[in-house]
Amino acid sequence: MPMEELGCSSGWGVRVKGEQGKREDRRLAGVCGLANSGNSCYMNTVLQCLFSTVPLVEHLLSSHKRSQRNSPVAGVFVHLLQEVWQGQGGTSFTSPGEMRALVSSLHPQFNNQSQQDAQELLLLLLNALHDDLKNKGERRQTRSSQRLCLGRKSLSSAPAAGDSTVVTRLFEGQLSYQMLCLHCDGHSHSNQVFTILSLPIPLDSYRCSLQDCLLLFFQQSTLTCGDQKLCPECGVKRDTAVLTSMAKPPEILVLHLKRFGCHGSEKRKLRTNVLFSLDSLDLTPYLSRPSANHTSYSLYAVVNHTGDLDMGHYTALCHSTLSSSWHHFDDTAVSEVVDFLVQSPNAYILLYSRQPFHRPTIPQI
Description:
Blueprint: E1 8-9, E2 13-17, E3 23-27, E4 33-34, H1 41-51, H2 54-61, H3 72-86, E5 93-94, H4 97-106, H5 118-135, E6 147-151, E7 154-157, H6 166-171, E8 173-181, E9 187-199, E10 207-209, H7 210-218, E11 221-223, E12 229-230, E13 237-238, E14 240-248, E15 252-257, E16 260-263, E17 266-269, E18 273-275, E19 281-282, E20 296-307, E21 312-320, E22 325-330, E23 333-337, E24 347-353
Parallel strand pairs: 4-5, 6-9, 9-15, 10-18
Antiparallel strand pairs: 1-23, 2-3, 6-7, 8-9, 8-14, 11-14, 12-13, 15-24, 16-17, 19-20, 20-21, 20-24, 21-22, 22-23
Helix pairs in contact: 1-5
Domain USP: 32-355
GO molecular function: cysteine-type deubiquitinase activity
Keywords: Hydrolase
């Protein structure tokens, strides 16, 4: 079926005047396919989402940050950004070979031709970029804390504590935990920094809303058995009631839908159609305290996953501020899509922005 019948269009380039006044095709800045180097679709989709994060792109391509382009991680990322955002001519895709080599060197898990988890790679890249920029002097002193990817009863490493960079200023939020010892009724409190929220999906449901997933994440839980917390009053681990709320909303909210898991010894993927808003995602019900700041978010990028846990494929949907339209990225294939096609039961990672993105201030576009 032609893409036009599906609400898609391959005409995502623009026409500009070339030499001697001739009209020539030139792809839209920031909209560029990426070659697959062997099961690297998971990497390509994560990169497309980062390429569409306008404040990050502007910061890294700004002229006064050129010294950072020689950094091991930031240098490779910025070089690819330049190709995607500032590349000349009508080439519809580029090969992220340097980035693939970099990803392979960052962690043994990615040093192969196997399919990997896009969420884990996104966390790894944010962590590596933060560390690289911090080491190169782009830092603002901030209170020491641990940055985590948070899901219900699951934690994994995220950008290390210490100085702030553009990564932490954009992607970092803070959760608040109010804890009650169920033995002595003693209260305690702690905060934890996050870059990605991993949201549970209601089980045995064909369809649910993103708000249902958020309610599950923030609902009161009871920690028992091996999950018991140390009570400061009792001096031993006790069953603990925990109420989670958001103390500091991030500028960029990254939501990971926990579709992959195990049912007994069987691996499975939840195919629940999670209905999400393209704009006006309101976090007010989950805040620790009322806020005068804007807490309504707009969607700008989605990572989709089709297939099963071991045999699947990743694609991305990203919004362009230059064309005010959505584009579908399937490795080298890029097409413009209508808004209603963004909603899909294949959604795996959702990226929201607290402030609407403006037309990026980038030289040569």
